[in-house]
Structures are given as C-alpha cells and as structure tokens.
Amino acid sequence: MRIKPVTLILASLFLAQAAWAAPKKGETIPPFSLVSTAGGKVTQKALEDTDLGIVYLFSTQDCPVCLTGIQQLREIAAKHPQDNLRVIAMGKQDLDTLKKALPVAGGNIQVVAADAGTLALYNAQYVLPTTYVTGPRGEILSAMQGGGASTQAVLVTLAEKQLQRKKPAIAKDVFESAEKAGGGSLAQAGKGYSLLKDGKLDEAEKVFTALLSSKDKEAALRGREGLAETLLAKGQADAALKEADAVIALAPKRVAANLIRARALNQQGDNAKAEHSLAVATKEDADGDFSFQKADAALAQGNLLRKKEPKIALASFKTAMKENPHSVEAVSNLGALMTETGDPKQALETLRKAQALDPGDKLLHGLMRQAQEAMAQKQDLERQRYIDETVKDLAARFKEQKARQAQAPAGDDWTTPPLVVSVLGFREEGPVSLSGRIGMEGVLQHELQGALAAKGIQVVDRALLDKLLAELRLGSSELADPDTQLKLGRILAARLTAVGSVRQGDNGQASLRLIDTETTGIALSTSDKVGGNPDPAALAGKMADAVAQALRDKYPVKGRIAMVEGDKVILNLGKKHGVAAGQQFNVLGKPEPVELNGKILGYKESRLGQLQVTEVQDGLSYAKVVGQPGAWEKNQRVIQAQ
After folding, report:
1. Could you give all domains of the chain from N- to C-terminal order, each with its CATH number?
2. pLDDT tens per residue across span 477-501
C-alpha cells in the first residue's frame, strides 16, 4: 500500500514534536504514578527526594540489551544497598509479564509497568532503552537513548556522578562494570580517577601508566592527563606541569590538561598564566572526558577571579553548579560571592541548596548567618542612614588623620572608658585555592564579632566598618599595613584593633593579632589550625576566649562605687564597659606611698574586700559583698579581680 505524502508529513511532524517534547537536561523529571512489581505505588517523588536517581525505560521483548542493562543496574544497587541511589525501571509490558521476567524488585531498585502516556511523556515509545539520570530535586543531569554504546554511557555517567558525590569507592566499582561492558579507555581512566580521589595514588598511577603505554592515541592522552594529576596530588608540580604541557602540545583544548597546568602554575605563584589556562579549559569548545573536570575548571576560574572579576566568577560558579550539581564547593562559593557582591537574599537561597547537599557543613552555617544579617541590615533604613552619616565623618577624619577622642568620665582618671575593639577582618594568605571554599575570612570576622559581643566586649559595628572601608577604597596591601590598621582603629575610637589571616589547604591556619592603638604594642597573638571542613564558629569562639583573657590580664576594668544602699552596692560600670553578671571586683583603699630616702617609689594598694556583680545595666551595675564586710563609701575605687 502506497503511503500518501500527507501521511508522511504528519508522521514527521509527530516524531519531531515528540523529540522536541522529550525531557531535557536541566529540567525537572516529569511526574508519574505507576504500580511496581512489588505491589506498591511509585512516583517521581522517589527521585526528587534523593540526590542521584535513574529512570530506565525498557522492554522485555526483542531488546536483549535492555535486560543486560537492567541486570547491571540491579547488581550495582545490590552491591551498595546503603547508597542513596534510586533506580526506577519502567517496563513497556504489563505487570504479570514483568514479574516473570524480573522477579526481583525493592530496595534501591523498583520495577514498574509504564503505560502509553508515560512512555510518550519520556519520549520512549520507539527507542529502548531510554535512560535519564537525575540529581538533587529531580533535576535531569543527562539523557540517553538506545543500547550498546548507550548502555556503556549510562554506566560511565552513573560512575562519574558517584565521583561528584565524593563516593570514589562506589564510582570505581561502576567504572569497572562499564569497562567490562566495553567502555574502553574512558572507563579505565574513570577507574584511575576514582582511585586518585580515594587517596590511592600509587594504584591510580599504575592505571594511568598502563593507559599511557596504549597504542590508541586517545587512550594515551587520557593516561598522560591522569598521570599529571596524580603527580600534582603527590606534590610534584614541576613534573605534573611537564606532563600536562605534553598533552596540550597534541590536544590544546583538553579540559583536564589545561586545568592541571593552571593548578601547577598557581602553586608556583604564576596566576597570570594560570588564568590563561583556565580560560582555555572553560571555553564551550573545550574537550573534556568527564563533567566533573568541566565543573572543576569552572570552580577554579571562579576562585581565581573572585576579587578581580566578580561578575565572571559568579558566572563560573553557576557553570560549575550546572556541570556538577552535587558540588558543595560550587554552590557554597556562589552563595558566598553573592553576599560579598551585595545580594544576600539570593545568596541565602543558594546556600540553602548547598546545605541540602551537606547539612553538617559548619562553614555553610556561618555563611548563612552572615547572609541573614546582611539582609536584615539592608531592610533597616534608619540604621542605614545612621551608618551613612557616621561613615562620612569617619572618612573625613581618616583623610585628615584626625583621631576621635575616647570618652572618659569628666574629672576621673581612674575609671576606664568603655574598651572598644575593632575587628578589621581577616585576609587570605598564600596562593588562592583553585579547588577549595571561599568566604572563610568574611565568616570568621562575622563570627568573631558575635563571639566577642557575647562576652560583653564592645565591638565596632561590622556594617559601619565595611562601608567605611568601601568608602576609603583601601586595597588589601594598604589594609595589611600596620600604620593603616592603627589609624583606622584610632578614628573608630577603638583601644584595640584585631587583624588576622587565614590560610587554607593541607597546612591550614588562622591567626589573630590584637593591636593596642595607643601604645602600638601587640596585646595578643594567637593562631589555630584550620582543617578540611572548618568550623568558623568554634574557631571564633577560641579566639574570643583568648581576647577576653588578654583583656582581663592587660586591661582590667576599673571604676568606682557610685552608691551604697544597705547591702547593695552600685558601680559606675555597666554593659558598655564589658561588665557581666558574676564578675568580681576588688574594693581598694586609699593608696599608700612607698618612700625611700625621701623619694616616693610608688604606691601600695590595699584590698578592703570583694564584690560580685548581680545585675548589669548599660552604664551601671549592682553588686553584693562576697569578701569581708566593710564600710563601703561612695567614690571608693574598684578593679576587676583576676
């Protein structure tokens, strides 16, 4: 029977529409509600609630490759039952047929009967198997149709997603399955990277060396790239750079080789050349084997350009997220940079996505608190006006080199004025990490200010300080200058200025110095280790403890008895002086001169008793007697007990 041209046109239009309507990468998995061979109902929620899922549409008739694919997925799911991977296998046949062909279901893998509507929704009416890999919130990460090479691609894709999830041992098993299925040098290279990410550097080197000796040019390139990355992981940057350059000489657009070259140059301090290599690695026409390599290149570019080109860095982090939605580093760094560039609301939304990937990440908690405070400050218009007016005055004073006068009680040279601390912040130290997290220095400043305030120590407003620094347009080198630090501290009427540095990496460290703006001496110098998963709140807490101890030792609070009401004593010291309930003060008598040969050498202090603070207001506090009783009088001197 001859088919009419109109029929052919309609058929073509139908197929084109079906192809156009197929779910695409980046979209959310289409909804479904189907019955499984185990008797339960399965919906797309099973995929939305996990960070890695597979929808595998197949047929048990005339599709031997479908059954092979199902068997491989079943083996992977069975071998790693604790993994959060979810496989929904949608069969074209009815439930009875599926039960006979595939008696096993449940756990990480569910076999369901797909109706005609679902097959059409997933564009799987004619070509089977059809596979969709999903990520967090059911986002489609990749889509593949057909058997043979497509089946190998499914396994390789699944394996690299496991690497993205930081599960190298599982990734290695899946890459080995892909290798057995004919995955070739791509699967072998993936196995090598899995060993590398698992810290098994010598085993990884053997895999890459074997690939390097292959007569196949592509396999040899993959082997040399992997060897270069292994050498870099071993700390041999020069050797890694040599191998990467050898790959680039043959294939200039290779993502991994250019990324390795950038990392090696970065370690050597040559960020200009590293920037050029990253520009090549992140181009649309760059040649990459795995999506995690493209994600790592985009992340590295964002980290390197964060200060120099924040707009490009934001776009780079978004690309890294797209290539690897499991990357806490990419999502966290995007959120941190959004806060830095003045978009805390969007930053908070982004950071919540990162928190869903790793709820226990302490740095994320700090970044979210920072974003929330920035949002609150933006909404407080009255406070903004106060800050604007104050900053104008402070900026003028800084340019005139005129310090604010500390306010002390008139006619009282004993009572100490409120001790104010300005936290000028932390600066990054050492080479920029191309693979690490950003924002640690800002979060540590934010957390330290909060920890100091919680101890009753008066701190210069962070928002005011940030705006002042922006108004003065001080560069990092100027802020690192001790004279500039002292000058800033003085115009802010701060007796002490806190400055610090953060170095991340294998020998990560955070250090803090407390500078006396009157004497220019160092009142405190302390440092602590920063691990791979830093806890800025805990680190800031330790620093605040050290600061509080230094203040007690070197700057004890001094004041006077303002009033005596029976057994209650009122002191002229309150919250603004750093006084808190429970603190103890020694009551001093009249100082007695110590003479020798008619010359006064000094004065001897006598302790008459001790008071303990029971209630604190802003400018005064109530205390009770805890030492020997005495005839306490107005104006008697008190000093903080050590």
Report:
1. 1-147 (3.40.30.10), 383-554 (3.40.50.10070), 558-640 (2.40.10.410)
2. 788 888 889 989 889 889 999 999 9
